[in-house]
Structure formats: C-alpha cells, structure tokens
Amino acid sequence: MSECFDFTRCSNSRKVYIHPMEKRFEESPQSVIYSKILKHFQESEHYTNDPNEACLFLLGIDTTDRDVRSLNYVKNVNEYIESLDQAVWNNGRNHLIYNFYHGTFPDYDDHNLNFNTGEAIIARASSSENNFFKDFDISLPLFHENHPYQIESQRLHNEPKEEKRRYLASFKGKRYVYGIGSGTRNLVHHLHNGDDIVMVTTCKHNNDWQYDRWEYDDLLSNSTFCLVPRGRRLGSFRFLETLRSGCIPVVISDSWILPFSETIDWHSAAIVVAERDALSIPELLMSTSRRRVKELRDSARDVYDGHLRSIQVISDHVLKILYKRIDNHFINMQ
C-alpha cells in the first residue's frame, strides 16, 4: 500500500468515484453482478461524481469475467482505460478492480487479466497464494448473480437442529476425468458410502445413476459438513452456498486465499484439508467433537450473516477493509 497507493487522496475523503462509460463502450457486456456492485456504490453515502474529491476509484467497464472463451469477456478494456482522463487513472493507483474468473481452458490458472491493471488493487475470487499481494489485494467469495442484493432484516437461516442433519458429510458436483482439479474431484468421489457420507459426482463422460437421486439443497441442509473441493479454479460457488445453508465447509483447495481472510478467522468457521489428504476426511470429521462442531457452526453462521449474506454486505466489507488500511496508515503516521 505504501508504494502503490496515494494516501493523501484519503486524508479528508472516503469517497468512491466510478469512471463513466463513453457511448462507444456502452455495448460492451456487463454482468448482472457487476451492475449490482456499481449500483450499490452509486446509491451509497460513499459515492461522489467528482474525481477530485475521491479516495477510491472503480471502472465503469466490466472486468469480472476474464476467460477469453466466455461470452461475457470484454475485449476492449485496455481501449477503455486509454480513453479515461489519465491524470485520474494515474496508472491504476487507488483503483479497485473486480475479477471473478481468470484463465481459460485447459489450465484456467493464468491470473493475468489481459489488460493493464497498473497499480490497481485486485478484488478477486479464486485468489492464489502465488499471485496475491497480501495487505494490498482483496480475496472475494464467488457468488451467483441471484445472490441476495439487499441487506435483509433477519438471519437467512435458523439454528440447525442436530437431529435433522442426516449426513455427516456430503458433496454434489462434477467429477472431472482429466485436467486441472480432476485429481481432487476424483479423491472426493471415492469417499462415498451412501449412508452418512454422500459424494455424488458425475461428468459428461460418466453418467452416474445416483446423481439425480440426491437433491443438492437437501444435501446442504441435512449435512453437518459440506465438502468444498476446488474445481477448474480455486474458488467455488459451493463455499457460499454451504455457509448459507448452515453447513460447515470443508475446503479442499490448496493455495486458495479464503474470502476476506484479512478480517475473517476461517480457522474458527471452516475446516481446511490439503488436497493430498482428501481420503483422510472421514476419519477427521468423525473425530471432531460435538463441542467443536457447534463452535464451527455458530462461527460459520456469524461470518456469513455478518460479511457475506448479500451483495451490499460484501461490497461494504471490501470498503471496510480498505478504510481500515487507510486509517492504520494515518495512525502509524502520528
């Protein structure tokens, strides 16, 4: 932050400025999610339409999907950035760039967003330890476009009753037969016993007759632990869905920086298992005490309700992290 962020812009302001879209860029794809993020900031008390009084800056163009094979991939981001007032762009300094998907077939592992991000802070899902600037970038959760937008007045799930949790652990999703992520998904497949551990996997090369027998939401709401193995990328929609259901996530995704790890103690709300140790998960979960299960479940519920329950809450927490860094800078300057 000290090398790539201009704190003087924030000495008297915590305002957010969103770069406008010229007419020639208005036909560029814009996802529902990014539209909602921008809408929230525009309607918040933090918004300003004057770049001179802004502390933080957002791009008007959508950068959330940088998979070049995706229909939502925006090709002309560099051209858009070049069209901005370069004194305001300032090589990306004090800019926050959102990204949910990076890389493409076959490895999906390239964190290059295919445009010049300059010195911007990257708020990214599927953040890897290998490409993450700690205390600068921000790790986001991956969420669907139908994730609640507004802050709801009450908790999204009630305290789950232990007797209603029929399964110790569950997972339902794709089983890749080759490529990145396939090793982990294959290990998960072999944990299935059809009784207290339900691992339902399928892929286009292998139609598993059991797949339709198990209903996804029912598994989430009736499992004590829900496995969150990596897919083609490190992050997964399943992580937030698991938390929302009141299930305890078991993360199997080496090098993944969990969402908002700068402010959330995930040790108290999730179990993280190395991919190579996936086959030991049943033994690990069966040896977890009821007291520890309750602690994990309570903490996971509080984390979800406090930080992840809506797009508004997620967006505000991004600002909270940045403002805390800024405040700490000025405190240390005294």
Automatic annotation (TrEMBL):
Name its GO BP terms in alphabetical order: heparan sulfate proteoglycan biosynthetic process
Any one GO CC term of this protein is:
Golgi apparatus
Pfam families xrefs: Exostosin_GT47 (PF03016)
Q: Which GO terms describe its molecular function?
A: acetylglucosaminyltransferase activity; glucuronosyltransferase activity
Q: Which residues form the Exostosin GT47 domain?
A: 12-287
Instruction: Tell me the PANTHER family matching this sequence.
Output: EXOSTOSIN HEPARAN SULFATE GLYCOSYLTRANSFERASE -RELATED, EXOSTOSIN-1
Q: Which family does it belong to?
A: Belongs to the glycosyltransferase 47 family.
Q: What is the protein name given in its UniProt record?
A: Exostosin GT47 domain-containing protein
